[in-house]
């Protein structure tokens, strides 16, 4: 039955993919001719009407009409989300795979297959992985998920290390990789001499950004010790400030003939604006949310909405002022979490947590899926030398960076990182969709834009597949300190339940006694208690 | 403190309204000049980038930039939703008002105020109450909310009456009002002789549609007996089939010179297609959802998503084929509810219910709010005679219809409707946003389109305010049979909890005993039990 279900699901998923590939017009515009076997009558005024309408020449009232363009956008979004959800179900039905292959790899693979199908029928992918859609709609839920469920105490115990790796580590990687690649560009054999230093630095910034989505999806399956987990996790979230500033700076500088020293100083100033501004907005909106939930006692059904609205506002306002939106939303979530969970009802609390997890999960699924789709459908420019050296340098500089930075930070740590931890830190630095989206936002006046996009995709696929699949066996092999967390959780949960049930017993006896007393004076109670056959 | 909070909230809401009215460009397009006190540098390529960028002429790296157009859409949506939520909080803080004035009236009033503010600063309202946005995004959550929480047993016990009122009642109203208005149009003094019979019938169809949103928001506060509640409620939901067919038919016919008998026959055929097709799709997707949730044991975090996706797909597919989408989504919710709630986890179940309520609540709030805003900002064409007679005929024909139809259906009912129930039925027939949206979808070739829109708004405002506010005192005055529902619910809930706690007790003792046995062999348990000081 299990095997059959598995086949069934794969068949259903594949059929779905094939069916889905049909109704896509070019880049989501209204297709010239909707598909389907029905005689479709073109709609006349009004287009917004609840039904399409025949031409006046047709004599009789139509009994059966179809109007696809009107519902196209929500319909296709719903179908893609449903397809991604089926893929998730499918993976978990075939359980053995998810033990060794991270879900991110599976999703990218499915995306590659779907992309191949769409490419073969000459369909355009849905115009959804534009940078705007990614940064404004797909990334916030994931970051909110990460921020809301971040373990607070381990985070603040390691905040120095986190910021050290996030800021200095990203700088180290960007500049190191950028300059190495520039050195490689000087070699005539590779044919990339037209890429100047600034462009190399810009590209290096894009691929230095360790991606929270990719890292999370791998580290959740591999139970490393909390120190390691929180440092990698925190680094992903907080390197956004540095990435934003460096990207800005190198983009700006790439277009300028002369770089003045004051610009470097302004760059440093901008880093503080971006980082502290992001945190400031996050705290502001976090406190606003906490304050608002004091007054929601009579509107319990919309309580979760405030949490989502305030977090999203923090993100958008940070985007508005071009400061680190990831830091804003993470800080907002961190700030408001405990106040909100005290103020809202139990149901709202459950709903908030579940909806955040749900949105984060489906966003992550869609991102990897579309990563696979767009990989096939984008025009690539391949250059063996540049791309292979990119992979090499990314790997080498990450490793060197972790080694050097750990040596410097270890004396300040209560629990120093041993070599095995450092391996985990270095090897766990996966790149993902943020690099991808940043690559797509490269301005068109950069000559080798396609090469950069191809190289970014290459490094993402490499880290997610090779490092993502191999990290678990390697960590088990070298015996990195594992977490006690799971065991602790069971203990905690058992004792919480014991306490709950104890309290219930007391209330039950108290209550039952009250009812028995009341029952002698109230017929309805007697009738109903009688039903209980107590 | 309470009074101060109330003032504070009103002040905050008003300030918010004023602030919000500023950044609106014309119909949501990119404003030519973003407001704000910062020096805004126009963005250059790439527009999609994570930050805006200065021109190349500027020498130094900008430390502070702003890019509003990029985030405009999600930002404004979020702000409007937040404003609507604050309005809801505000109403409930000032609790006495909501006892006598339904929330719908308050929201329309706030909308009128905001509309007036926007009009005075010559801002366009956000282009959100287009019919497409209303029918595709704002209506489905409300109807899903209604359908998902519809009491099943009372509904099926009254299904005959519901369908009788929904179908025949709506027909009666449409044709009656239409023909009466046509008779009025013949009187020269009113100056509306150019409106022919078909246009009158079309307009009558629009305003005959009793609106679920308006009715629910009033009947929830007034605890009438279930029979009355379920018939009015069911009628609102299921008259959609008739409204769709009639609207189609009269719209089509209004453009045709000759109406053939076969068209009337096709109209009847279309009614069956629309009604049964809607229910068919609903049942199909409902079973698909029920089936899918059998396999979601390993993906608990995205379980609620399936419910929303399938319901929305049922709605969209029905819209695609121009059949009754409201019936589709209600039937889908009815079909899948019990299967789904058995299959999903407890948390998912809570989340689903809460999110449905949340989305329905906020959609309803937004609809009434925008109804108020657009009332001010639309161009009106007033005609005293036509509009007053519209109000009169709507009222009279509704009353007559209820009387006549009840006389016919009462012999078939177990609990016949007495005259007081009939009053509730007739008086509770409020019109709302569905009529409004349908009015906006009238084709432009109808000469008196503006008059129809103005008349529709007039009747909505009249029924929601006059009937909505007066229905509660009138029902109490004439002493309509009230519900026992609330008392029954408390009983049911108490006994459910008694049962739960009983079960917990047994498990607790059993469990505790197991642990004590295990404790002798396991140190960890002893340590932790010791902590409990048991």
UniProtKB/TrEMBL annotation, chains A, B:
Domain Cation/H+ exchanger transmembrane: 82-475
GO cellular component annotations of the record: plasma membrane
Record-level Gene Ontology MF annotations: potassium:proton antiporter activity; sodium:proton antiporter activity
GO BP terms: regulation of intracellular pH; sodium ion import across plasma membrane
Localization of this protein: Membrane
Bilayer topology: Multi-pass membrane protein
Signal peptide location: 1-28
InterPro entries (UniProt xref): Cation/H_exchanger_CPA1, Cation/H_exchanger_TM, NaH_exchanger
Keyword ATP-binding: no
Assigned keywords, A-Z: Antiport, Ion transport, Membrane, Signal, Sodium, Sodium transport, Transmembrane, Transmembrane helix, Transport
Residue ranges crossing the lipid bilayer per the database entry: 71-91, 98-121, 133-150, 162-184, 228-250, 271-292, 312-334, 355-378, 384-405, 425-443, 449-471
Family statement: Belongs to the monovalent cation:proton antiporter 1 (CPA1) transporter (TC 2.A.36) family.
PANTHER family given in the database record: SODIUM/HYDROGEN EXCHANGER, SODIUM_HYDROGEN EXCHANGER
Protein name: Sodium/hydrogen exchanger
Source organism of this protein record: Myripristis murdjan
This protein's encoding gene: SLC9A2
């Amino acid at each position: 039955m299990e095997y059959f279900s598995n086949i069934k699901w794969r068949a259903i998923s594949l059929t779905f993919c094939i069916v889905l590939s049909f109704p896509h017009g070019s880049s989501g515009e209204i297709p010239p001719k909707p598909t389907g076997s029905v005689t479709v009558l073109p709609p006349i005024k009004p287009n917004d009407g609840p039904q399409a309408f025949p031409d006046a020449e047709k004599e009789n009232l139509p009994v059966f009409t179809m109007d696809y363009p009107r519902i196209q956008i929500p319909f296709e979004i719903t179908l893609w989300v449903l397809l991604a959800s089926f893929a998730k179900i499918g993976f978990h039905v075939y359980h053995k795979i998810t033990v060794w292959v991270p879900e991110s790899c599976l999703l990218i693979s499915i995306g590659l297959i779907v992309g191949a199908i769409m490419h073969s029928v000459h369909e355009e992918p849905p115009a959804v992985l534009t940078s705007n859609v990614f940064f404004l709609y797909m990334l916030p839920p994931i970051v909110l998920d990460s921020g809301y469920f971040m373990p607070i105490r381990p985070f603040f115990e390691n905040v120095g290390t986190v910021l050290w790796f996030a800021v200095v580590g990203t700088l180290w990687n960007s500049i190191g990789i950028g300059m190495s690649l520039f050195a490689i560009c000087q070699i005539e054999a590779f044919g990339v001499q037209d890429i100047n230093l600034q462009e190399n630095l810009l590209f290096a910034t894009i691929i230095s950004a360790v991606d929270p989505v990719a890292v999370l999806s791998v580290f959740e399956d591999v139970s490393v010790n909390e120190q390691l987990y929180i440092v990698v996790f925190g680094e992903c979230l907080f390197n956004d400030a540095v990435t934003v500033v460096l990207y800005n700076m190198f983009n700006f500088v790439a277009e300028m003939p002369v770089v003045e020293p004051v610009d470097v100083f302004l760059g440093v100033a901008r880093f503080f604006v971006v980082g502290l501004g992001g945190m400031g907005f996050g705290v502001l909106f976090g406190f606003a949310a906490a304050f608002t939930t004091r007054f929601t006692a009579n509107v319990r059904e919309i309580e979760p909405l405030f949490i989502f609205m305030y977090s999203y506002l923090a993100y958008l306002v940070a985007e508005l002022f071009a400061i680190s939106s990831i830091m804003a939303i993470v800080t907002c979530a961190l700030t408001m979490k405990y106040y909100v969970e005290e103020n809202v009802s139990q149901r709202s609390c459950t709903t908030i947590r579940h909806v955040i997890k749900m949105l984060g999960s489906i966003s992550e699924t869609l991102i990897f899926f579309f990563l696979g789709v767009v990989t096939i459908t984008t025009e690539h420019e391949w250059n063996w030398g540049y791309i292979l050296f990119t992979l090499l340098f990314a790997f080498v500089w990450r490793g060197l960076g972790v080694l050097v930075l750990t040596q410097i930070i270890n004396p300040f740590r209560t629990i120093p990182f041993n070599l095995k931890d450092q391996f985990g830190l270095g090897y766990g630095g996966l790149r993902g969709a943020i690099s991808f989206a940043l690559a797509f936002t490269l301005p068109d006046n950069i000559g080798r834009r396609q090469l950069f996009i191809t190289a970014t995709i290459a490094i993402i696929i490499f880290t997610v597949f090779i490092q993502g699949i191999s990290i678990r066996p390697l960590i088990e092999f070298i015996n990195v300190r594992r977490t006690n967390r799971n065991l602790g959780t069971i203990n905690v949960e058992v004792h919480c339940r014991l306490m709950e049930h104890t309290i219930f017993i007391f209330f039950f006896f108290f209550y039952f006694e009250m009812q028995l007393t009341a029952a002698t004076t109230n017929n309805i109670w007697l009738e109903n208690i009688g039903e209980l056959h107590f």
